[in-house]
Amino acid sequence: MKKFTIAVFFLFFSYLSAQTITATISYQGYDESQAYFGQGEYEIFLDNVDGILDKPIILVDGFDPGDTRDLSMLYTSLDIGGQNLADILRDESYDLVALNAPLYTTDGKDIDGGADYIQRNAMVLVELINFINSEKVGSEELVIIGPSMGGLISRYGLAYMEENSMPHETRLYISFDSPHLGANIPIGFQYLINYFAKQLDNDQAQLVVDNVLNSPAAKEMLVDHYTGHLLSGSDFEQDSNLLLPVGAPNFRDAFQTELNDLGFPTNVRNVSMINGSGQGTTIGNPGMEMINTTLDLGATITADIKINFTPEAGESINVTNFSTFLAGIPIASFGADAESFSFTDGVDSSPGGKSDIASGLGEVDDPIIIEFFENLEQSEYSFIPSVSAMAIENENDWYVSPNIDNSPFVNAHIPDANEFHVQLTEQNVAFALSEIREGPLSTEETAYANFYLAENPVNEKLIVRLGPNNNYSNLEVLVYNTSGQLVFEENIFNPSDILSLNHYLNSGIYILIINNNNHFFRTKFIVK
Questions:
Q1: Are the folds of 13-177 and 451-527 the same?
Q2: Residue-level pLDDT at 363
Q3: Rounded to the nearest 5 degrees, what angle is found at the Cα of 162, between the Cα atoms of 150 and 99?
Q4: Cys bridge to 171: 36, 141, 402, 522, which one at CB 3.0-4.6 A?
Q5: Distance of alpha carbon 458 from its chain centroid, rounded?
Q6: What is the DSSP code (8-state) at residue 233?
Q7: Exposure of 232 by Cβ count < 10 A (0-12 exposed, 13-18 middle, 19+ buried)?
């Protein structure tokens, strides 16, 4: 007994610090001459009830060049309204396992895990899934949450395991604003920052180009990448015949084809939380100016800078214009154009999870770049289009309102307004908690029920239709919030065929239960 207690003691405390995990399946990238084994670091945050690893939830980090977000920061990224989603779950006996992709060296190669190939990171997740399933107590299946690129890593890893007959013992996969059809950084800005790097020898710009734009993950995800437009033999000039959106050569199309062929895991409940508008609300307008200003570079040198969003469907415009002057005399200039497909306006202003130009650059102390940021008229843009986050493959218009019926997801939280990428809100947290706690409840009427909601989401009234030719002499109507608290109760005698109930509930997700002696009905509904 003493020996067992000591073993448990050391096992418990091994969970309280970051541990390294190495994939046993290697991956060879598109530009690599050999395969490499990926590495990750994980930390297990046991629940606050029994302290036993028996209900694991794996949180997979997303795009993070330079590993600026460690495991503790990944945990705090779940903060919401003075609370933390992980803390809430741990208080309910769930265990959180955070997976981070660090900087590491393997077989002589330096790898920036947070910006590395999605596939190699997925093999690290596969290793972690196998490890957690071997270590957990009991038979509880996993929940995997993948914010941003973490959602692609999770999808790829789970589908890969199924394709290769590897049991993943996972019941729920939550994709959180993940770019299933690609991500976006305005091409006008890409051209400019690359020009700063290549022609102005700006060190910070070069770091952005090398570590962000030209990272394997960015080349796999970005639907439009400056390298797809370069003039042959030049590292910054644009080929005027290559104006339509195109991904990084040998990366983007290859990855998307591979991802589409692999598909989604089929033995898992796949749900999505997105930050882009479901109502077609745009972020600015196609072709609008992001910046149009003159910067003072010192020593009588000035620079005129103009960047525009990509244009309306079928149109082409100048998206990057940079000219420098010495005492008013032109000394250098650079420009680039962009054209939009005939079937969709440019992606920069599409409905989607928002980002801003400065967010991906880290700490900036270069005076030129700082002044550039200070003069931006439109810093926000569509980073993860709504259609992409919902993985609607049969739609090529970035501006349509996403229809879950055309999506591989069985349930989704889609806000009316555009929110910042992977922004937690009371509504999407309630959605996630409901999915994790309740299991596969549908927001649609249940097949066996003699009741159904007339509208969902609901407004001021909860309207329920009753099936015909049944005796409903006494109905009990109960509504619970996602914390399991009873928030509405009403007994109805001899009801008509339509119940119209004033509920006075706050916005969020609720569970409706209706029963009498003969019938029982339970479904999930949303209050807008």
A1: no
A2: 65
A3: 25
A4: 141
A5: 27
A6: T
A7: exposed
Does the N-terminal peptide bond of residue 286 adopt cis geometry, omega within 30 degrees of 0?
no
pLDDT digits (tens, 9 = 90+) for 260-313: 999 999 999 999 999 999 999 999 999 999 999 998 888 898 999 999 999 999
Q: Half-sphere exposure of 194 toward its Cβ, with a 13 Å CA cutoff?
A: 25
Tokens of 131: 């490890």
Q: DSSP string covering 113-153, please?
A: GGGS-HHHHHHHHHHHHHHHHHHSSS-PPEEEEEETHHHHH
Asked if CATH classification 2.60.40.3080 holds for the domain at 451-527, the reply, yes or no, is yes
Of 520 and 242, more confident: 242
Residue 134 tokens, joined:
């071997």
With beta carbons less than 8 A apart as the criterion, state whether 93 and 55 touch.
Answer: yes
pTM for the complete prediction?
Answer: 0.83
Distances (CA, A) of 322 to 292, 304, 328, 363, 439: 10, 6, 14, 24, 54
Collapse the DSSP code of 370 into the 3-class scheme (helix H, G, I; strand E, B; otherwise coil) and give the result. Answer: helix
| Euclidean distance between CA atoms 327 and 101, whole angstroms | 49
Pairing outcome for strands 83-84 and 109-112: unpaired
- Angle at the Cα of 441 from the Cα atoms of 475 and 480, rounded to 5 degrees: 50
Distance separating alpha carbons of residues 133 and 462, to the nearest angstrom: 42
Q: 77-86: buried (b, 16+ CB within 10 Å) or exposed (e) per residue?
A: bbeeeeebbb
What is residue 71's DSSP assignment? H
Number of H helices, E strands in the chain: 12, 25
**Closest Cα to residue 293, out of 361, 356, 376, 229?**
376
Which CATH entry fits the domain spanning 13-177: 3.30.450.40, 1.10.10.10, 3.40.50.1820, 3.40.920.10?
3.40.50.1820
Q: Transcribe 296-337 into DSSP letters.
A: EEETTEEEEEEEE---STT-EEEEEEEEEEETTEEEEEEEEE
**Cβ-proximal residues to 370 (8 Å cutoff; 6+ apart), any chain:** 364
The pair of three-digit structure tokens given for residue 407, joined into one six-digit string: 């999506």
Each domain of the chain, given as residue ranges in start order, spans 13-177, 187-253+280-413, 451-527
CA-based nearest residue to 194, from 311, 32, 307: 307
